[in-house]
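Example record

The entry below shows one chain as it appears in the dataset: sequence first, then structure tokens.
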Amino acid sequence: MSLETPGGAATETVRFEVAERVAVITIDRPEVRNAIDHSTAEAIKAALDQLDARDDIAAGVLTGAGGFFSAGMDLKALAATGRRPITLARGAFGIVEVPPAKPLIAAVEGPALGGGFEIALACDLIVAATDARFGLPEVKRGLVAAAGGVLRLPHRIPPAIAMELVLTGEPITAERAATLGLVNRLTDPGGTLALARELAGAIAANAPLAVRTAKQLVNETAGMPLKEAFIHQRPLIDAVRESEDAREGAQAFVEKRAPTWTGR
């Protein structure tokens, strides 16, 4: 498995390409609608490790090849090998328990159901085509959406609507998801990757340390009492204020030029 070189690299099932400080991670198994087997989960995990480790990358986009996002778990592979698509370091699908520290945008074409939806929920933002659908049908099969679905969805949309989706197993359209605030941007089919790149580029233009810290605080203080949240954020905010990037941001503003970030 090779995920390297600034221009891009690939495994058999995951492509990794970098341009203008944005990494595009593509699940490349269109013959099974980008369903995830164990080796693909490991490849996604490796791609996210590289996303976090490389200083030349500020944000990422996760998408699927062939007009599909992901069908979730590859049940045929599970039946054949007995191996679930779970990684030790990042959990199911190589992402759901430990998403990357850097911002990640899901570019969703077509249906994102079950595990596919849970992968999208592990991302920070979602760009969707108008023909996309989102749902957690596990209860229809005697299961629970245990790869983050029942845990994350109530924090992304109104809890009563989330409860309806996890109890009925029925999907919603991309337009409905956008109305609920789950989808950040809508586009015509085939346009999600370009729009997600644009959104990632807007993020990548900002100070890397500030962006990572902002994401961390949004996630860590969700549901925390405000007084406790202010105490929790203090050392992280102090580190940002004392950073080289904070000084560079102020100097660039005074000099009316674009800042040059170092991530320190």
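Notes for this example: The longest helix spans residues 38-53. Residues 9-204 form a domain with the 2-enoyl-CoA Hydratase; Chain A, domain 1 fold (CATH 3.90.226.10).
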